Amino acid sequence: MNSRIYIFLFLLISSIGFGQSGTNGLNSPFSRFGLGDLNEQGFMHLRQMGNISASFADGHHLNVVNPASYGFLQATSFEIGVESRFSSYNDGQVKESTGSGRLSYMALGFPLKNPINNLLERNRSDFNVGMAFHLLPVSTVAYNITIDEEDPDIGQYRRSFIGNGGVYKVGWGTGVKYKNFSAGLNLGVNFGKISNERYTTFINSRGAYNNIFTSDFNIRGFDYTVGFLYQHVLNKEITSDVSQGKTIKAINFGFTAKTKTGFSGTEEVFFRNELTVPSQAIVVPPIDTLVRETRSLDGSKLPSEFSLGVTYLYGAKFALGVNYGITRWSEYVNPATPQSLANTKKYSIGGYYRPNPTSITSFFDRVFYRFGFYYKEDPRTVSSEKLDTYGVSLGLGLPFVFQRKISHLSVGFDYGTRGTVDVLKENFFKVSLGFTFNDDEWFIKRKFN
After folding, report:
1. In angstroms, rounded to a whole number, what is the distance separating the alpha carbons of residues 267 and 261?
2. pLDDT, tens digit, for every residue of 242-296?
3. pLDDT tens across 55-74, in order?
4. Structural domain that includes position 335
5. Where are the beta strands (DSSP E) in 10-154?
6. Is residue 448 domain-resident?
7. How crowded is the C-beta side of 254, counted as CA atoms within 13 Å?
8. What total of structural domains would you count in the chain?
9. Which of 16, 18, 138, 359 has the fewest CB atoms below 10 angstroms from its CB?
10. ∠ CA 124-129-135 to the nearest 5 degrees?
């Protein structure tokens, strides 16, 4: 695919997919707390393997979680991901189901040294540089909760909690590989708007003042992630790259770190009363503004993160990895919504199997069969109960030809649980699609005889 087409698609989809606000049909009560529901940063092919992102590197797929992986790129990769989520909630008394869909990420990565040049010049290089741009959601706020109650003195009244918005990240990264060691850096800009509303409506009280409280805060900030990746080749007599489908046996060791960073912004608070006259079905415009002010979010902090992992690779035929991560949410500071959050850990294991990556007679022998298991803690608690998540993931990496290049469609399925039925339990099922378009003609040196 022509490079200008990649760039055009990147800009077009970003303006359409991420320029939209709203909940997209999602109603997650858990997103009331903190920055909302935190989104996985790994792409679909990694999520289908439990997100073993710290130590995974592939020559034709992007791994933006560990920027050191860019040094292993062998072809330009344009990635898009979409997903649908179906959830059922149960608090022991009431059950509710919701569904939603959204664009999950978009990225463009490429090696700055085209490996075809080395083949044409019969020159083997120990040095490679890769670069990537990405756009993805960091967190999502989307909830709509209604509670009907009754008081003997004031009658029936309704409390409503509504929230939407989220935090997004646009980033750039580069990775430098020398022999079997690679180091990388991601620079990211976080931005977004989160709106929270609370209503108290008196249903049968004539002349009662309904309370309306709204809080809108805008976030902007900068962060960076460093990553390291070392590949230890077990059968050193094989010198071809893992991405070429050779039977290299290797173990990858990976590590990523993101330090505590600050963010700024403003919070706009509006607290008012509205007078409702039930008999005439008339809502009088706001007549009593109690609070209206703008507050600064300067001094806010995002937490530091660390992850490490190990992945065993048997060429392009088999992979199995484990991953461990920790996020120090106790460092989180936000004057708009002061909360005490706990440090979290995540454990995952996963991999893939391909019966015969080089088969020319069987399509299904070339398919990636992916699997993963994960457990992750949540920084938030509800009624002193933790919101831990357990999940299992399965996926298929289906090769297809596009613009005379081999690309991949990743189809994935996730099933898991979060929370506890004593407070609120969620069972979720996710269907995901990831598109990876590859091109090996960038930065190629043209030769004329």
Report:
1. 19
2. 444 457 899 999 999 998 888 888 888 888 777 665 555 455 554 566 677 888 8
3. 999 889 999 999 999 999 98
4. 17-79+102-389
5. 37-38, 76-90, 95-111, 127-151
6. no
7. 32
8. 1
9. 16
10. 145
